[in-house]
Input
Amino acid sequence: MSAPRSILPFPKPPFMVRDRFRVSADLFPLGAVYNGQFESAHFVADNQWDDAITEKLGVLISHGERASCLQTDDPAGLAEALWRVYGLLANDEPTLAQIREDGVSLPRLGLRLFTDSPETRIEPAILREDLTPLGVRVATWLESRSGVIRLADALALSCQEDIVIMRGSADGADVAELIQVCFPSGWDPVEKIATGFFAIHEPIADNSRLLGSSSKVMKALLTKGPYIRFSWGVTLSNLRDAHPDVVRPNLTPDEWEDPELVASRTYLRMERQTTYPMPDLGRGLFSIRIYVDPLIRRLEQRPDLRPRLAHIIESTAPEVRAYKGVTKLATPLLSWLNSSVDCEIAANDSTA
Output
């Protein structure tokens, strides 16, 4: 009889380190405290794991060609990089992955992956009853894949993070060799595969500082670190998948005039990103974890974030707001955030 799966903790969504926003690399050392949380792991599992993996699987089944992008002339080298990432996952979250001599075990799915063939053999773990219903669906999908993309999809369906593998070359060039991203924030992975850091980030508004440091950022990603960084957004959608083709909710003209109603429909979308160098392979990991939380609930839990979020939105250049898709939300949200801060100040004054 199989053992019960471990209970995962509640999410601990991150927040920005700086309260003034401008487009820059902002890489911070992994293994330090940011916003009261000690950030040391590349992979963090919580009790939204099943929902996230189910959503990922739905994206892959419906739009696998846009979410799982691969272009390489060295599949063996890429496979070795992915097995190392599995090692990171097993170290950070052994309830999700455990390294074996012949492959890796995925306890929450009830699957094992074996390294004894180029196709990455997939079997139930020990007993057929260990295979969970979600594991059955994942195994069915993986059996439809082949080669290194099967290994990449298996990794994607083992963790809540999205995965990018960047590859460097002797002449200093870099390229996105694998983009396994089911939850992009307004960008299309298909357009980024086989391009370098500069080209990937060129469409971003107000990008001069970021592009000016592109060579240093790539050197850090491929040979230094590990690092962590954070990004933010506000949205009317509770979906993790914010691909440009995904239809997003909207409000009526009258609803847009009501700041409190707008705030009640808004979600805070935070990204937690990490890097991990593999210099002997000429590659580096870039992970992306998406957190989507109702704005009001998040601020009720962390009232100290209200003025900070207001300052972040206020300090964001208009062209960057447009790129992030938050232009229309900015005005009513700032009105609501600042009025909330004013109310708190008045309440504190009245009880002083």
Summary: The chain is about 40% helix and 20% strand. The radius of gyration is 21 Å. Residues 327-351 form the longest helix (25 residues). The first strand starts at residue 28 and ends at 29.
